[in-house]
Design goal:
Elements (H helix, E strand, L loop, with lengths): L7 H14 L6 H14 L4 E3 L6 E5 L8 E2 L11 E4 L1 H12 L7 H6 L2 H12 L9 E2 L3 E6 L1 H8 L5 H5 L9 H5 L20 H4 L2 E9 L2 E6 L13 E5 L7 E10 L5 E9 L1 E9 L9 E9 L4 E8 L9 E6 L2 E13 L3 E8 L5 H15 L3 H7 L1
Helix pairs in contact: 1-2, 3-5
């Protein structure tokens, strides 16, 4: 709903939000759009004289400094104002998953999908993830979208082939496997064909400008920008013929006067594997959706997560069937790790811990396959 600014504290909250969102990676027109939206958002921000568990930014009013991320600072920095933005982040997350009726008038007019992702990126990322960058010269290969990623990670098999299911007599193989693709018409030549077209499968080139532990800054090398070149889009990244595909997301895009683009790419996981998923309550045997299994190495143990299309029925506390090769296991989506207009990344848990061996076998098989990853590149020639 629409909220007018009611007091000086909300005016101050709006000014703080504009400072926080102005990362110098968005256009003046987008800053204006955020200015319009922040009039509604100011009442979702807590500006307090004391620290709480949700205090994300801090301010020392004795210094002429903008709000800074709440972490250990020099002893001369003595914060006395604490800013919590978690409610705003949760609100923006909901605007992606809910219908337009959830949006205020200003949000409907100004809050574009790239701006939603920009807000999520700023308010949802920890500053520690923004690692120091180093100059690096290389050429990356990129492809866009969750379905295209599934195609290449499956060694150019169609989604229906990876399911290893027998279609019902009333439906063709493509029809049963791609029921959900009506949500993604841009990737297909026409709805009756429902096959990834040449443009959707295309591998694109980008020049690396610099590199960090967690991603790349790159320059787009092609004259034309494909439709999926947008912030929040899922991508596959490869740095060489003998390298593995990495899963990632476009964090920001800057366009120069000469219509060339610079992109900020974040690597979600270097170990990413194709699988499939369907909602537990869906009685159909064939309404599967593409899914990617992400394995991230932590100090104590590997962390597993799932990347799914951003559809309303994939949400926290939802039970789903996870199809690993030809085995279905029941899991629960526990926590949203990352959400964009393109995909959602979830932590998950098994309903039956005794099925952990199926995940272990799946990953072992995938790792063996990845050692022969050169096969994918041979198929692309």
């Amino acid at each position: 709903t629409h909220h007018a600014l009611k007091n000086i504290q909300q005016c101050y909250a709006q000014v703080l939000l504009l400072e926080i969102f102005n990362t110098h990676q968005i256009r003046p027109s987008e800053i204006y759009a955020l200015y319009q939206c922040t009039a509604d958002w100011a009442q979702l921000v807590q500006v307090l004289p004391r620290e709480t568990a949700l205090s994300r930014y801090v301010i020392d009013t004795t210094k002429d400094h903008p709000p800074v991320y709440n972490r250990k600072h020099h002893e001369s920095f003595k914060p006395n104002i604490f800013v919590a933005t978690q409610s705003l982040l949760e609100h923006v997350n909901l605007t992606i998953q809910k219908d337009n009726e959830y949006l205020s008038k200003k949000e409907k007019a100004y809050l574009t999908a790239p701006l939603k992702f920009h807000v999520q990126n700023v308010l949802g990322s920890t500053i520690e993830r923004r690692h120091e960058r180093y100059e690096h010269s290389a050429q990356l290969q990129l492809c866009f979208s969750l379905l295209t990623a599934h195609y290449y990670l499956s060694k150019t098999k169609t989604f229906s082939e990876t399911l290893r299911l027998t279609p019902p007599k009333s439906k063709s193989e493509d029809e049963f496997a791609f029921t959900y693709l009506n949500d993604y018409p841009d990737a297909y030549t026409d709805k009756s064909n429902k096959v990834l077209d040449k443009q959707a499968r295309q591998i694109h080139a980008a020049q690396v400008l610099d590199i960090s532990l967690n991603g790349y800054s790159v320059r787009w090398l092609e004259e034309e920008a494909p439709p999926n070149l947008r912030t929040g889009e899922f991508i596959l990244i490869n740095e060489g013929v003998n390298s593995k595909w990495k899963g990632g997301v476009i964090r920001w895009i800057k366009q120069s006067v000469k219509k060339s683009y610079e992109l900020g790419l974040e690597v979600i996981g270097p170990d990413i594997h194709p699988c499939a998923a369907k909602v537990y309550t869906d009685r159909s045997s064939f309404n599967y959706h593409p899914c990617l299994f992400v394995q991230t190495l932590k100090i104590d143990a590997p962390q597993h997560s799932l990347i799914l299309p951003n559809l309303q029925f994939f949400k926290e506390q939802q039970s789903i069937y996870l199809r690993l090769t030809d085995q279905d296991i029941k899991v629960e989506l526990i926590k949203t790790m990352l959400i964009t207009q393109s995909f959602v990344q979830f932590e998950f848990e098994l309903f039956n811990d005794e099925q952990q061996y199926l995940i272990d076998e799946f990953l072992q098989h995938q790792n063996l396959e990845s050692n022969r990853f050169q096969d994918v590149w041979e198929a692309l020639k």
